[in-house]
Each structure stands twice: as structure tokens, then as C-alpha cells.
Protein 1
Amino acid sequence: MTAGPLAMNRVKPAILLTIAFGAALVTAAEPPADRPADSPRPPAKNPAVLGRIPDDQIPKTDAEWKKRLTPEQFEITRKKGTERAFTGKYTDTQTPGTYRCICCGEPLFTSQEKFHSGCGWPSFFAPIDKARDKTVAEHADHSLAGIPGFGVRTEVTCRRCGAHLGHVFDDGPPPTGLRYCINSASITLDPTP
Ligand SMILES: [Zn+2]
């Protein structure tokens, strides 16, 4: 009565060995990886670089954002980070065009309101909507309030997707007197054709 199960036990290892050997052959036949496992991951595929993405395709979780954004873009836009001064790609850019949100593709600023502030970040005296409340939102930021020379700052975010963009200060040029100090990593430029 016990011959059946015993016989099966003898057969199973042989089957497993065959499967394992086959898998090893398949693995060996695969072409070598293009890059070492510890190299930086390639640039993310971010549809917002190409244009304004539909409302229902705006990510809702950090995991979803991480799939689209570079680590720097994620840290700045979704975790309120700040790129180092004078390191951003648009700090001194004078190319005519429209700057859109790197997260959702919404147009936020244009080159017509961009000015050279010398502060180390792209600076605009107004957002693309002059009313200041349609495309960007402003929030009180107390994160550096206890440090001498700072006080409460006004954070600027993309109204549509909540991306952190930078801060707005009241030391800008005419006609608004405002300086929107924006991280290059938070925006993408569409040059005017
Ligand atoms: Zn956005």
C-alpha cells in the first residue's frame, strides 16, 4: 500500500532537477544586462514632459510618482525639497517658451515673466495666470521660521497636482514686485516654435 507514495518521492527530485537545469539553460541564454546592477536607474518615462496629462492619469501615491520622476524631481516636487542654488538647468535660461509642471504638465510660467534675479534659481515676476490663483497655489511655510533671516515664507505649489515648485517673495521687479523663486527640477520648458 505504501509503494505508490515512495515511488513518487523518488520521481520528484528527478523532475525538479530537470526543471532547474532547464531554467539554468534559459538564464544562460539571455543576453548580458546593459548596465551593472548598481548603476543609476535610467531616466523615468514621464508623460508630463510631452504635454498636459489627463486628470485621471495624475498619480496619487508616492510609488506611482517615483515611476515617472527622477529621484531629484521626486524629492523636490513631492517632498518639498530644494535644488542647490545655481545648479538647476533653467536658472539662466532665456529661451522663449512656456514652463509646465514636471508632474502633471500644466502650464505655469512663461519666459515673458522670467527675469534674472541672481538668486540661483529660475525667477518669475508672475505666474502664467496673472490672477495668481488659477494655476499656482500659495501656502504659509514655517519650516525655516525659527532660523534668523528667514521667517515664515510663502510656498508655491502646482494647484492641479500639488507639486512643490518653490517660494514667492516680495522683492521682485515691477510690475508685480514679486519674485517666484522656482526649482528647475519642478518645471519643463516647451520652447516657442
Ligand atoms: Zn502639476
Protein 2
Amino acid sequence: MHTTMEPTERPALALLAGSDEGAAALARLAVAEDWKFTTAATPARALRALRGDGAPDVVLVAPGGGCLTPWTELCRTVKFDRRSSHTVVLFLLPPDQGDRCGDVLNAGADDCTSAAAPPHEFIARVAKALRARDVGAFADDADTVIAALANAIEGKDHYTCGHVERVGAYAVQIGRAAGVDFRGLAALKVGGVVHDIGKIGIPDQILNKPGRLTDEEMAVMRRHPVIGYDILKSLRSFADVLPIVRWHHERPNGTGYPDGLRGDQVPLLARITAVADVFDALTTDRPYRKALPTDRCRAILSESAAAGDLDDRLVATLLRIIDDGADAMAAGIVTAPAA
Ligand SMILES: [Fe+2]
Ligand SMILES: [Fe+2]
């Protein structure tokens, strides 16, 4: 992850990759711009430079007149490996290979231009790619902050240690068994972590009250899905997660909150998270009772499904997962959560 405090519009260290006239052109450009740089004449050497200490943050590839494929493969390797995917990669193609720009971009390159273009255009493209990288790093940092915030809020609630991580893990297992696609599974994982983030707005004496809440206190507690929704609604990377945060206390029979949705009006991911949330509540100690034995949990889940408090098909899916004794979920039922 990019760690400097100031926005960067020039490479900290550029790797000039290419041979012959292409590399020479890049070197002239780097010298003129006073960039710190190193060079690699082959894709293999470039990859070694990227894997070593003090790796460059920008790779400028000028393949020259030779075969382009080894260089696009290098780009693919760099951009699809999590360790180096943040490295900016730009291609400077010979004028007669300008039609290969699509191949280069498909290999994950941040940008591509012709060697016939004026040097200041290439420099501007480098700066633009660096700005985009910094914005991406900022978004990653924002996600990390939100996850940390969600865990900090969980710390306010003395009885739910590890709850949010477990809800995410259970929801992913139910989702996978229910045929949810990859993007949905990712939302379930994050949704588990942040589903109760709105509890930041709930006073500690209500959150940690031993015993039943009064009607008034319950009304305050029931604000947490909308508070959480309002916290996250302007963050683009949480768009898929918002329905989970807002509607994880809705019920198929329409008696849930905050919007009183019914049946399939409650989005699938929110219904899945609701089942995972209840399951974790039953299998862990709460302010008002100890964790319940597995048979009792099964019975309560079945009763809830029959009453329309939980989605009956998803409860059936969860019960099937529990029945698969070798499944990690079953281990989760009998293993005390990590403190
Ligand atoms: Fe909640
Ligand atoms: Fe919860």
C-alpha cells in the first residue's frame, strides 16, 4: 500500500523495462524529468527487480520492435499478483504497433501510448496513473478504517466478542450453499463485519444492559440499522453491503425493522445475514442467558422459520450445513470463540 503522506505525481522509483531504442527513449525521458530509475532489458530481469527489496512503484515498458507478448505477460504477472498489483505499469509502443494498445490494456496496464506521441503526453499519463493509484490506496485505507471501526464498536458490546467476524463467516457458508455469486459472497463477508456498525450511536447503558430492555430502550436499539446505513451510504465500495446493514433485522413475515419489509422484499443477502446473526446469537453467551446447546438452537431456528421470522429455505440450508459434521460450521458450534 502507498504510504507517503503527500500526493505523488512522479515515480518514487521507476523501472525502465525494454531493450534497444525503446529503453533508450525511456532513459532520455527519465533523465530529463530527473526521475530516480533503474533498468531491465528483459521481462525476467524486470520481474526480479519487482520482487526484490526497494521495488519500483512504476514500471515503464518500451518493448521496441521485438515481440510484444513476453512484455504483456510480464504486465499480467505484475498486475494480477496481490503483492505487486499496486505497481503502476505503462507501455510506450513503437508507432507501428499502436494497434496493440488494446492487448496491453487487457493485460492490466494502467495506460499505453505511442512512442510517436510528444514526451510531455507520456509524462502526463504517468502522473495521471499515479493519481489514480493514490485514490485507490485511499479507498483501501477507508475500507480498513471502517472494518477497524466496526470491530471497535463490537468492543463496546461486552457480550458479542468475535460476533461480527463469525456472522460474516456463517453468512458466506450459507450464501455459498445457496448459490450466491462471488460478488455476493464478498458482500456477505464484509456485511457481517459492518452489519451492526450503527451501534456506535447506541448508548453503552442500553447496549450492555443485563436483562430485558424497556420499550423505550428497545426503540433506541432499533435505530442501529438506519444509523449504520447512514454512516456507509456515501462510500461507493460499500454499495453492495448497504442492504445488509439496513435490513438485517427485517423478517419475511413483515414484523421486522426498520422498514417492515415482507418476504422477498427483503434482499437475499440481508435474509442470509439475518439467519447467520440469529445463529451466532443462539450459540454464544448473551447478557440474559448462556449459549444454547446445538439441539435447542436447531429447534429455535426451525420455529423461527415456521413463524416467518427467518427465511425458511435459508434456515433449511443452514441446518443442512450443521448436519454436515465435517463442516467448519459444525466445529464453530462446539468451539468457544476466540477471546
Ligand atoms: Fe443488528
Ligand atoms: Fe448482529
Protein 3
Amino acid sequence: MEPPWSVAWTGEQAFRLQPSRDFPGKVELDQKQAPGVGEPIFSAVHVTRQRRGLADHRCHVCGELTAPGDRYIFPTASGGLVTMHDGSQQYGCNVPPMHRACAERARSVCPHLSRIDEPPLPCTSDEGRLIERTDVTPGLEGIAAELPPGVDVVLTCYRLYGPAFTETVLEARAQWETAARLRRRS
Ligand SMILES: [Zn+2]
């Protein structure tokens, strides 16, 4: 299987700043595009493709657009709960969605996903809100150190989902926990 579309390659280790298309008025980090050049770096997502995937609902695995009826995520393997101002928590996902077929393929060949081994969860009509991050997330420390001081640069982004889909994700995670506990016991 080809490496996932959103993985970075060693031939893509060049960055620049540009006005943001997705977050008007802000500056974003843009990464050189040369997928297939050098070696894939499975531990690193490509900054620009990750953003395009999340902004346009492009498939994490194949890079093509996902339609609302064929859009899936792995709720346990990806994302996390974001605490809101009122103390409530909402699910945020920093991994682009996948087609069902792509998700199933990834589940069988990706070491991380096959270890977790959870069914892909269909997205709902809640498309989430695209939220930018200007704080330094793991893997971007080196790049962040090179950025001009005092400028807020959009480094990554995620989709923040409302209470209903958050509840769906929490239920899926709880089911996975129960199944994992039973597997460990047998
Ligand atoms: Zn796909």
C-alpha cells in the first residue's frame, strides 16, 4: 500500500509563510509539495496537506474529496476532547476524514491502527468548525524555532464538533474500551 496522502516525505522539508486562505487575515505555514520524493516519514504529517484535508474534507489516505455519505474517522485513534470556556468538552479531530474503503485499508495495514483495531465511525451532518492552532504541536518544534518572533503563525488546525457528534464519539470510545477489556481477558 502507498503511504497515506497526508504523510510528509524527506524531499518536502522546506517551509515558508504565506497569507492564509482558510483563515483570512492570518499567516500560515506552507510546506513544499513533493510527495514521493525521498522516503515517507510516517511519524510526520505534511503541514499543508493536513490543512487541505481538514479544510476541504479530503481523504487522509487517498487525498480525494469525501462526500458527506462516505466520510469516516477513527474516534479512538484520533483527536481528543477540547475544554470549552463553560467547562463543557467537545470532540476535536486533527486528522482528515477517510472514505470507508480507504479507512478499512488503513485499518488493516497501518501498524498504529491495526493495533487499536476499531471500526471506522461515519461522520454526521455536523461537519465541525475548522479551528486554527498557533501553538507548537509535537513534531513542529524545529520549524517553530525558525519562525520570526512575535508573529502568530497558523501551524495546524482541527475540526471541533458539537455536543451530538461529541456524544457519538464518546459512545464509540466506550464501546471500544469494553471490547478491548474483553479481548484482554480472553
Ligand atoms: Zn480515500
